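Pilot study result, target chain (219 residues):
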Amino acid sequence: MQLREVPGMARVRAAAAGFENDPIWECEHDAMSADSIQLFYARAGLKGQRERAINLVDLAQGAVIHALFFGKLDEGSFAALVLHEPPPEPYMADEFVDGLVKLSPARRTACIFMLENRMPHERVTELTWDMIDGMRLRGAVAEVIAAMRQTRHERLPYVFWEWATQSIAAPLLHLGPGIERAFGCKLPELAARYSRMVMIDRNAESASFMQLARQHGGV
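Predicted structure:
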């Protein structure tokens, strides 16, 4: 049996205008996989309708579970769909910028560098210019380092630094806790959000976050 033939699925497909001919509805009961669902999300994403696709999968899952409960499907049918968990809520770029503006300019750049490189905050704090030479820099990371080169301290070896007093420069101490306070979550959760972040402006890229932060009221 194909997914489109499941009792109650006609109502689901009626809500699927624009997706009624998608291959997911032709998946056989013993052939549907997690990849089948993810490809459906991907096809919908190309149309800018991924959230709608998630809702349709939720409706289809409900119809299949209902049919299984009432014995209208063989046990184990469409197992991948029955066990499927909806993807987490998207993390929007403006939410990220809201947290970014709560940090000082130096800590913003360090935060982006940390997230882009998936690097522990302690290593970012301790990063020196001689360590940069062996790293591959591209995208947002390349912009971050280019920005830091413009404010490179004459004597301090650290890439990321700030004025501890009017005359004393220091590395970014307590960087991790400060970022957690700004974003209201632990660093692993922030990294997970960053990895699934959705850009509001299609013309914006992650390399522009420092500029976005300035536009949203940051220093």
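One observation from the pilot: The radius of gyration is 24 Å. A full batch analysis is planned for the follow-on phase.
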